[in-house]
Amino acid sequence: MKRKKLGNLENINIAVISQNYFFNEGLINFLHLTFDCRNVIHYDSSFEYIKDESQKKFDFVFIETGSIQKFDLLALLGCDFLRGRVRIIFVGNQHFDLVNDLSDKFSLTGVLAYKDPSITYIKALKILINGEKYISDNINPISSQVPSRDNNSIIKKLTPRELEVLKLLCQGLDAESLAERLCISPRTVVRHKTNILKKTGFSSTLQLVANIVDQPNIKEKLPHPLLW
């Protein structure tokens, strides 16, 4: 069944649920610049969103599944007041077995992958605004994603310090928090990030992290202890 069209995104309310700094900043800036969205609010968890939802009356909810636990997703999807009204858009590579099982029962309208280019997000949002559903071609809800490049070679190219930086980037830490954790300056963090991108061939930190976080064999080779 088609949903009611929302028209331009400029005046609609959007929530972003994620604990990943790079995802939050990238998506919110993208919505501002591409669709002139003014009403975008970030939440660290579904529980924070649920407490605020009755006052804000959101139209779209973006959920970054990589930093959200399954019980957190279930808490959100189980809210009766969300059914049939709020349009839920999942972004990531994790938990799509759960998403696949529940998509027909709740208000899931879109599924996007980390590695989808910005043009895919634009296409998806235009379709969603018109009341249709959108599932990315890069999403396989049952089996794991096939790596887009040889991730094992990434480990071999980086120094021990760069691997430490990469581990913390995958946890969603921003430059200031990462610098504090490693007892280095933010400028040094920026230099390490630049070197990591140059060595691995990725054009952005978001692309790099998206290619790493869903590969258990790579995470095992990063410095311990890990907080995945």
Question: How would you explain this protein's 3D organization?
Answer:
InterPro entries: Sig_transdc_resp-reg_C-effctor (IPR016032), Tscrpt_reg_LuxR_C (IPR000792), WH-like_DNA-bd_sf (IPR036388). Residues 151-216 form the HTH luxR-type domain. The protein is of the alpha/beta class. It folds into 2 domains: 9-135, Response regulator (Rossmann fold, 3-Layer(aba) Sandwich); 152-219, Orthogonal Bundle (Arc Repressor Mutant, subunit A), CATH 1.10.10. Helices cover 46% and strands 12% of the residues. The chain is built from 11 helices and 6 strands. The chain has a 6-stranded parallel β-sheet, with helices on both faces. Helix 8 packs across helix 9. The relative contact order is 0.12. The model is unreliable at 1-5, 141-149 and 224-228 (pLDDT under 50).
Task: Briefly characterize the structure.
This protein is of the alpha/beta class.
Features:
disordered C terminus; Arc Repressor Mutant, subunit A; six-stranded parallel sheet; disordered N terminus; globular; 228 residues; single chain; Rossmann fold
SSE topology string: EHEHEHEHEHEHHHHHH
Number of E strands:
6
Mean pLDDT across residues: 72
- Count of helix runs: 11
Distance between the termini: 38 Å
Beta-strand residue percentage: 5-15%
Which percent range fits the helix content? 40-55%
The name of the CATH superfamily of the largest domain reads Response regulator
Backbone structural class: alpha/beta
As laid out across the biggest beta sheet, the strand order is 2-1-3-4-5-6
Largest sheet: 6 strands, parallel
- Gyration radius from CA atoms, angstroms: 18 Å
Which second-level CATH architecture of the largest domain applies?
3-Layer(aba) Sandwich
Look up the CATH topology of the largest domain: Rossmann fold
